[in-house]
Amino acid sequence: MKSTKRVLSIQSHVVSGYVGNKSAVFPLQVMGFEVDAINSVQLSNHTGYKTFHGQVLNETNLMELIAGLVENDLHYYSHLLTGYIGCPNFLQKIAEVYNILKEKNPNLIYVCDPVMGDNKEMYVPKEMLDIYRKEILTLTDIITPNEYELELLTGKTITCTDDIYEAIRILQSLGCKTVVVSSTNIEDTHLKSIGKYVNSKEYVDIYIPHIDHSFIGTGDLFASLLLLWMTLNNNNLKESMEKTVATIQAVLKRTLNYIEQANPKTPTFNKELKLVQSIDDIRNPTVTIFGKTNYVK
After folding, report:
1. Given 141, 220, 280, 281, the catalytic residue
2. Is 1 a member of any domain?
3. Counted domains in the chain
4. Cα separation, 83 vs 155, whole angstroms
C-alpha cells in the first residue's frame, strides 16, 4: 500500500544550523512523514555568518538524482515541497520533476515556497520571477509567499489587507490553488498571516505578536508545518494555519530565551532555531492565537 505521507523536499541545506531542508525535514519526520531530501545548495552554514562555504547543485545533478529514483521505482510521493532555488535552469527542471512525480501519483500535492526575497530585496536572479509566473504557479496546490514575494508574483503593490486579498485572488486566477501569505507587516504592532483555500470565498487572517528579533529559516519551517497540518487536518485551512503559527511562535520564544541565557554571547549562532528542543510543540502545538475568517466579495 502506497504511503499517503511521503515527501520529496527540494531546497537548500546547511551543515550547521536550521534553514532549508534542515528546518523543514525534522518537523515532518516527527509527525510521521517519510521525507527524501534533495539539497539545491549545500553550505557549511547560512549566509548570515561572516563566511560560508559549500556547493551548488545544478540542473544536470538534479535530473541524475531523479533518474536514479525512477529507475529503481522509488519516485512515488504524496507531496513535492520546494523552497530556495537559486538558479533559473534548476527551477525550470522543477516543472519536469513535478510531471514525473505526477505521472506516478496523480494525487501528488505540490507545496511551493517561492523563495525570492524579503523586505523589498530580491536575492535570486531576476529571471526566476518569470519562471515562477509562467511555469510553476499553475502546478501548485499550496503556495506560501511572504509579502514581498506576493508583490513580485502578482505585480501588485501591497499597502493594506485588501491589497493582499486582491493579490491572493490574482495568484489563484493564475492557477494557484491554496494561497497562504506566511507573513506581512502591513500593521505596525503585529505581523499577519493570511490564507485562502481553493474554491473558497473566505480568507483566514491570523494576527501574530511581533518579536523584536530577526530569525533565519522561519519561512522554510512555515511551509513544512502547513504541509503537514493540511494533510493531517483534512485541508482545514484555518486550523492548519493556527497550528502552524502556534508552533513557530513556540520555537521563536524558546530560541529567544536561549539568546538571553546564552554564554558566551555569539548572536548569530544563538539565533539558530531551537527545533529539537521544541519537539513537543511540533507534535502538539498549543493554539492561543486564533484565526479570523473574513468573507470578501
Report:
1. 220
2. no
3. 1
4. 21
CATH code for the domain of 183: 3.40.1190.20
Phi then psi for 82, rounded to 5 degrees? Answer: -125, 145
Q: Tell me if 142 sits within 8 A of 109, measured CB to CB.
A: yes
Question: What are the DSSP E strand ranges found in 88-201?
Answer: 109-112, 117-118, 121-122, 142-143, 178-184, 190-196
Alpha helices in 217-291 (DSSP H): 218-232, 237-261, 267-270, 279-283
pLDDT digits (tens, 9 = 90+) for 157-185: 999 899 999 999 999 999 999 999 998 88
- Cell numbers for 254, please give them: 524558546
CA geometry: angle 190, 271, 81, nearest 5 deg: 75
Residue 118 falls inside a structural domain? yes
Q: What is the β-pairing status of strands 54-56 and 34-43?
A: antiparallel
**Number of Cβ atoms within 10 Å of the Cβ of 253:** 15
| 130 in catalytic set | no
Over residues 114-156, the pLDDT tens digits come to 999 988 889 999 999 999 999 999 999 999 999 999 999 999 9
